[in-house]
Each structure stands twice: as C-alpha cells, then as structure tokens.
Design goal:
Blueprint lengths: L8 H15 L8 E4 L15 H4 L1 E11 L18 E13 L11 H27 L8 E3 L3 E2 L6 E13 L11
Parallel strand pairs: 1-2
Antiparallel strand pairs: 2-3, 3-6, 4-6, 5-6
Helix pairs in contact: 1-3
C-alpha cells in the first residue's frame, strides 16, 4: 500500500500484523484487529457492531518527537545538522467485555477470574507482538523501547489494557520503499 508517510504508517502496519498474528492465539480472540487514531481509542465508537463485547485489538499511532542522539529523549536544542532521528510511539491495546450476568445478578468470582485471565492473555499477546516486531529486522532491538502496560479503566462495560512502544526512526526517508528501522 502506497503511503505519503514513510515513517509512521509502515511501522504501524507492521506492528498491527504482529498483533493480529499473536492475538489470534488467545482462547477467545478479539473479533476486530485494526489501526485506530486519536488521542485515545473510544471503546464505544463503531460502525460495525459492539466492538467491546466482540473484542477489539488495535495499534494507534501516538506522539512523536525529534530524538537525535539521546533516544528516546526529546531533542532540547537545535541540532547542528538538523533533526537526525525521531522517536515514534505506537500504542497496542485490547478491550473486551467485563462480566455481564443476567439482569439482577452480579458477576461471580469465577466470572471475574475468567475475565482477568483473558485480559492477561491479551497482555501476553501484546508482549509477543512486540517481540515479533523486533525479530522481523536484525538489529531492530536497540531501536524499540516497550513502555509500561496499563490496565484501562472500566468504560462502557469494557476492560483491557494498553502498552506504548517507542521506536527510533531516521530523520528523513523519502524513498518509495519506506524506512528501514
């Protein structure tokens, strides 16, 4: 797929392919695995169906900043030769339904145990997706910094978690083939 952005989108699509491969291995995989945009992924926006209860896994391009010599730190002064590199954040996330018993009932300990296990299985799939992304290109490990996995607040009956991954990218790659990381 041709893209005018040779820096972020090729990496986001590659990370998505790794996430799709790894999330398919969980017991009850999310039905939807997609790229998303925005400051956060809204758990209840959908044209398809109830993405939360069907399960949604995503890669979301996040902030990026000039990071020439002190990756992943931000350049704090102009660089003698201009921006030599960028730090790019991709967010991996997965949500699913919290236990929802029949009206008038409350979730049991077994319901919560199963949901907690599913969320942790999703987190393991995200970790494997990061490894898949790193292993896809020799030498990439020094250019990938996974962040802290965070559980999401329960929102609209959805539970899950996200993990940011910061990637080093070159300052400029205008080739048709896209960047090499």
């Amino acid at each position: 797929m041709a893209t005018a952005d040779p820096m972020i989108m090729p990496r986001a699509r590659e990370m998505l392919a790794c996430l799709e491969q790894e999330i398919a291995k969980v017991l009850d995989p999310p039905l939807y695995v997609q790229l998303r945009t925005g400051a956060v992924v809204d758990h209840l926006i959908s044209e398809n169906a109830d993405e939360c209860c069907s399960g949604l896994a995503w890669v979301r391009p996040g902030p990026f900043w000039p990071s020439s010599d002190a990756f992943p730190g931000q350049d704090e002064a102009p660089q003698p030769k201009g921006v030599a590199g960028w730090a790019i954040t991709l967010e991996l996330g997965v949500i699913r339904c919290m236990p929802t018993p029949d009206a008038g009932d409350i979730p049991t300990a077994a319901d919560w145990d199963a949901t907690t296990q599913a969320v942790m299985d999703d987190a393991a799939a995200m970790r494997r997706a990061i490894c898949c992304f790193i292993d896809a290109l020799p030498g990439r490990a020094k250019n990938v910094l996974p962040g802290i996995w965070q559980p999401l607040d329960i929102s609209g009956g959805c539970v899950g978690g996200v993990i940011p991954v910061t990637l080093r990218a070159p300052a400029c790659d205008c080739s048709e083939a896209g960047p090499e990381s």
